[in-house]
């Protein structure tokens, strides 16, 4: 068998159908995304609207990315430079990595007496 017979040309390559029950995604333009739910309280909810707010972010996003996304919305001037954050009902740092389906809460400062 000659080597020439083993070479494939572009027109010989056919896209394969996805396996049964699977969906084919284009690999070049596909960006993994995730959805999180944002809870806002007190003055934050007054300024940005009642929650929970669904938010779609790129995979690998952090709690700080949620704050950045919220700053693009009308009323975001009510957010301080570094609001208190909680992820899934636990205090969180801005660098906390998020997963699909997480719940992120922005908590305003409270005063009591």
UniProtKB/TrEMBL annotation:
A Pfam short name:
ThiS
- Keyword entries, A-Z: Nucleotide-binding
Q: Which GO terms describe its cellular component?
A: molybdopterin adenylyltransferase complex
Molecular function, one GO term: nucleotide binding
Q: Does the keyword Cytoplasm apply?
A: no
An example GO biological process term is:
Mo-molybdopterin cofactor biosynthetic process
Q: What is this protein called?
A: Molybdopterin synthase sulfur carrier subunit
Organism equals Roseisolibacter agri
- Organism lineage string: Bacteria, Pseudomonadati, Gemmatimonadota, Gemmatimonadia, Gemmatimonadales
């Amino acid at each position: 068998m000659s080597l020439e017979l083993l070479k494939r040309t572009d027109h010989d390559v056919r896209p394969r159908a996805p396996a049964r029950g699977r969906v084919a995604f284009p690999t070049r333009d596909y960006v993994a995304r995730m959805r999180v739910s944002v809870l806002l309280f007190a003055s934050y909810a007054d300024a940005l609207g009642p929650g929970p707010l669904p938010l779609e972010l790129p995979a690998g996003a952090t709690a700080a990315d949620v704050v950045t996304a919220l700053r693009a919305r009308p009323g975001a001037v009510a957010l301080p430079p570094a609001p208190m954050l909680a992820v899934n009902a636990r205090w969180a740092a801005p660098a906390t990595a998020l997963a699909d389906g997480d719940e992120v809460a922005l908590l305003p400062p409270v005063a009591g007496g």
